[in-house]
Every structure is written in C-alpha cells, then in structure tokens.
Amino acid sequence: MTIDEYAAWAATIAKVDEHPSNERLSYLGLGLAGESGEVAEHIKKLLRDDWLDKAGLVEELGDVIYYWACLCAATGQQPSELLAASAAKIKRRISEAASR
C-alpha cells in the first residue's frame, strides 16, 4: 500500500470528505497532537528508564500517521506530494546552511 492509498483508506474510516467541517478538522488535529504526545511519552520514558518500548513507540507512530494522512485528505493534499515538498524544503535549508 502506498502512502496515498493509505490516506484515501484512512479518510474513509475517519469520514473525511472534500469539505470537512471545522469540528472534523479540529478532531483530526487534536488526534494528531494527542498521538504525538504519546510518542513523546515513550521518548521521555527512554530518558527516565534507559529503556525504549519499541513496539509501543511503533504503534504510536502508526497512530500519528493515521491522523496525518486524514489531515492530508481533509486538505486535499496527496501525502506523497507533501513528503516531496518537505524533502525539498529540508534540502534547501541544508544547502543554505552549508553556504554560510
């Protein structure tokens, strides 16, 4: 399954259409923030306990991707295009930093 196929599937599960309500967008954004917080919690526990629950972290990363993919669909963006744009932005920043 490609990331674009996953986003289309996730959008059907989350009932995201072409014109999501503010409530739906808020729900998805809060879901993304909440799952990101759970990822951070695993990292915090790594620092505290010097042990990483990799399976738990991976599960939370999957939840982050779900909400991210739903938000992509809700805003009419293809995740693959967003990833390409992000990579280009990071490459520009690296190039600019190297030329200083």
From TrEMBL:
InterPro entries in UniProt: MazG-like_dom, MazG-related_GP37
Alphabetized Pfam families for the sequence: MazG
NTP pyrophosphohydrolase MazG-like domain sequence ranges: 30-93
Protein name: Pyrophosphatase
Taxonomic placement: Bacteria, Pseudomonadati, Pseudomonadota, Alphaproteobacteria, Hyphomicrobiales
